[in-house]
Amino acid sequence: MKIKVRCPICLKFFKFKYSFKQAEGATFDCRQCGNLLLMSNQKIVDFHAHLHSTDPSWPKDGEGTSYIQF
After folding, report:
1. Buried b / exposed e across 41-54, counting CB within 10 Å, b at 16+?
2. What SS3 class is residue 59?
3. CA 56 remoteness from chain centre
4. Can you tell me the distance from the alpha carbon of 47 to that of 60, in angstroms, rounded to the nearest whole number?
5. H or E element: which one contains 9?
6. How many CB atoms lie within 10 A of CB 7?
7. Model confidence over 20-64: pLDDT tens digits?
8. How far apart are CA 63 and CA 61, in angstroms?
9. Any idea which fold 3-54 has?
10. Where are the domains of the chain?
11. Model-level pTM?
12. Tens of pLDDT, residues 44-53
């Protein structure tokens, strides 16, 4: 099942192969702008802004953070 989603940062649309429910809690990159996104409460949100809203010590723009991939 592919759904059409919109990036909250660049506002461009792209196809996503999972349902909102299946992807809950997942992180992924926008296929248009490359920014890190999060599926939260069945909505796509900016990962860094979302973490900042729950923990102000996390930088809103993600500056100085890194990631691991496995």
Report:
1. eeebbbbbbbbbee
2. coil
3. 18
4. 9
5. none
6. 19
7. 889 899 999 999 999 999 999 989 999 999 999 998 998 988 888
8. 5
9. Rubrerythrin, domain 2 (2.20.28)
10. 3-54
11. 0.83
12. 999 999 999 9
